[in-house]
Amino acid sequence: MDLLFGKSQANTVKAPDREFYAMAQIYYGSSRKAQEKLKEAGLLLSHTAINGHYQELKQIYPDKVKAYEDMDKIELKNQMELKSPNQEVFLPDADDHLKVDEISF
User: Fold this and answer.
1) Strand, helix or coil at 6?
2) In the predicted model, is pLDDT for residue 38 greater than 90?
3) Are the C-beta atoms of residues 35 and 50 closer than 8 Å to each other?
4) Could you write out the three-class secondary structure of 45-93?
5) What is the four-CA torsion angle of 15, 16, 22, 25, rounded to 10 degrees?
6) Residue range 73-97, pLDDT digits in tens
7) Which of 24, 31, 71, 98 is the most buried (most CB within 10 A)?
8) Nearest to 43 by CA among 79, 97, 85, 15
9) What is the pTM of this model?
10) Does the structure show a pLDDT above 50 at 6?
11) Which pLDDT value is given to residue 90?
């Protein structure tokens, strides 16, 4: 049973993974960029599937998606890491993610 979407399907991504991939599209800026970056971490999913997870989440939980879209990059990446299907791998930073040592004071 897919707890997030209320469907029972064989060979589907689990509900928390759906949220992770939707967050990845937001964090990386597009489904294609998310696919490319997540591939570096060994997480393989087509860009159309990533976009599908984003669209489904946006349709069912628009407030949650809006909250993710409003998060700063650091907080969004932290949330992604908590929901990652493989928490033993390092998730690559987005191209526009500021590194701590690059922040000017």
Assistant:
1) coil
2) yes
3) yes
4) CCHHHHHHHHHHHHHHCHHHHHHHHHCCHHHHHHHHHHHCCCCCCCCCC
5) -140
6) 999 999 999 999 988 888 999 987 6
7) 24
8) 85
9) 0.77
10) no
11) 87
CA separation for the pair 28, 24 (Å, rounded)? 6
DSSP designation for 16: H
List of residues 6+ apart from 92 with CB closer than 8 A: 37, 38, 40, 41
Buried b (16+ CB within 10 A) or exposed e, 86-105: eeeeebeebeeeeeeeeeee
CA distance 14 to 3: 8
Residue 36 main-chain phi, psi, to 5 deg = -65, -45
Tokens for 105, please give them: 């004071």
Strand partners, 60: none
Give me 40's structure tokens: 């570096």
Between CA 15 and CA 18 the distance in angstroms is 5
Rounded alpha-carbon distances, angstroms, from residue 15 to 7, 28, 55, 56, 62: 10, 20, 14, 11, 16
Q: How far apart are CA 53 and CA 31, in angstroms?
A: 10
